[in-house]
Sequence to fold (481 residues):
Amino acid sequence: MIFVRQTTCMKTFTKIILILTILLFVPNLYLTKYLLAAVVPTGNGFVFNFTPLAWTSLAFQVVWNILAGILFFKFLKTQRLSNVIFFSVLPVTLVYGIFMVYITAVKGMEGKLAASVRTTLKITTEQTSFNNYLWAGLATLIYLIALFVIILFACRPLSRVEAATQKLGDGRMRYDEYKIGGGKQFRVIEDSLNKINYNYKEKENKLKQTNLEAQKFIPKQFFKFLGKNSIEELELGNQVKKNATTLFCDLKSATNISRSLSLEENFNYINSYLKVVAPLIRRYDGFIDKYLGDGVLSVFSKPQDAIECAHAILRAIDVKNKSQKELPAIDARISINTGEIIFGIVGEEERKSPTIISDVVNLASKMEEINLYIGTKLLISKASLNELPQNYEFDYRYTGALSLDDGTQIPLFESLNYYPKNKKEKLKKLKNKFESGVRAYNEKNYKEAKELFSYVLHYISDDKPSFVYFNKSNEKLKEVA
Fold:
C-alpha cells in the first residue's frame, strides 16, 4: 500500500515538472535574445552588458535547464542500461564534437566573434601556434572523464547486483529488501532478487521448522554425532562409530500400576513421569534414543553428564512421587555403561529411522536386571568409571560383577551420591566392609560374607543390597549344610 502511494506521488511530481517545463519554454525562448545580446564580442575579447531582461533570461535558462535535466534523468530511469548509456553519452558527445570542429576551425575564421574567441583562448593565426590543439586535447580529456563518470554511475547498480547475487549464492541472505537502484531494467532485477531472497528465506524458515519438528523424533545431538546439520542431509546407511555412554532408565513399577488404570489414564500416568525425565536428559546434553514404554534409553557423549543426569532424574522422580499422592509411586532404576556405539540411519527410502547399535545397549538392559535384583537405584559399569575425569568427585561402591555368555566379567558399581547425606556418610564408612562381603560372596566364602553384611546391616538396616547379599549368603550356607 505504501509502495503504491509512493509510485502515485512520483507520477504526480513528474507531471508537474513536465507542465512547468513546457510553460517556461516559450518565455525562455523569447528572452534568450536578451541573454545573447548581453555578451558582446569586441574582437579583443567579450564584454558583458547584462540588462534586467538579460538577468531574467539567465534565471529562466537556469530554472528551465534544471527542470529539463530532472525530466531527462527520469526518462533515463525508464530505459534499459544500453539506452541509458546511449542517451547519457549522446549530448556530451554532440557538445564535444561541435567544440572540436569549432576549435580546429576558429584559427582561420573571420569576424568579431572568432577574433574574441581567439583572444580569450590565446589562439593566434600564426602557423607556429598550436594553442587550439592544446584546447582540443583538454576538451578530449574532459570528454573522456565525463564518459567515465557517466558509465560509472550508469553501471553502479551492476556492482550492487553482483554483491546481492554473491550473498544469495553463498546463502548469506538478508532479512531486509535488496536496494539496487538504477533504471527500469534494474528495478526488474531488484524485484527478481527480492523474490529469490524471499523464497530463500521461506525455504530456510521451512527447513528450520522441519528440523525443529524433526528434533522431536531425531534429537539434534544425533545430527551432531553423524556430522550432519539437517534432516535433509540424512541418508539411508549413514553411520559412525563413536565412544559414548548409555543411560537406561526403567520406571519398573509402572507395569504393575498400568493394570489398574484405564488406557487413557495409563498414558497420562506414564507421560507425567517421562515429562520429568526427558527434559533432564536434554539439560545434561544427552538425547533419548528410544522410549521403551515405561522407560527410556538415552545417550551421552560424556559419562559424567550421564551420572549427573541420573542423580537429577532420581531426585526429580522422588519429588514427583511426593506431589502425586493420589497415585502409587514410581520406582525408577538406572544403569549406565560406556563403550563403542554405532550411530546410524536404518530402514528404507520411504521411512528412515535413526538408531544406535551396540553391545553396550544390551549390556545396559542386563545391568538393569541386576539393578532390580539387588535393590540398587543406580548402577555404573567399570568402563564408565574409567572414562571419568580424574578431578571428578564421585562416591561409589563395588556391588559385584555381571557375567556374560562368553565368560567376561563386567564389574558394577553403585552410586552413593543419590542417597541422603546422613545415609551416604554411613555407606562411605562401611564401604570397605560391604565390598569385602561382595568379594567373599563371589569367592563362595559365604560365612564370611554373611558376617560382613550382617555388620553393615547392624548400622544401616535399610541397605537393600546388603540385605539381599545377606539372605543369599544364608541360603548358600543352608544348601551346604
User: Anything to note?
Assistant: The longest strand covers residues 332-348.
